[in-house]
Design goal:
5-stranded antiparallel beta sheet, 105 residues, alpha+beta, 1 helix
């Protein structure tokens, strides 16, 4: 992902999601969900459900991010854990997910 924001849900029972950015990549195992915010100078990873892993591209260091814990913020040269879920973005994604369940199949 070059830029933007997205929420990923891994609904598979046996597949790992790998999402890459210029700053590193995220691995999400089955049942996990996360938000990925990619900007011009940084990336933020927020675990929504379970635990995901972020691997920094410059150092190959791996950071785990758990739901309910601070997010990971990374630039091309550093990583910190200071962010949180944006409440508006979370409400929007929750309502879209609920709407999809209500639609007739």
């Amino acid at each position: 992902m070059a830029s933007g924001l997205a929420r990923f849900y891994n609904k598979s029972s046996d597949t790992v999601i790998k999402v890459t950015s210029p700053f590193g990549y995220v691995l999400a195992y089955p049942g996990m969900a996360f938000d990925f915010y990619v900007g011009e100078n940084s990336v933020e990873v927020v675990a929504i459900k379970g635990r995901v892993s972020f691997v920094h591209s410059a150092t190959e260091a791996k950071y785990d991010v758990a739901a309910g814990s601070p997010s990971i913020l990374a630039t091309s040269s550093s990583v910190s854990g200071e962010g949180t879920v944006d409440p508006g973005w979370d409400r929007r994604n929750t309502s879209v997910k609920t709407f999809g369940r209500q639609r007739p199949g």
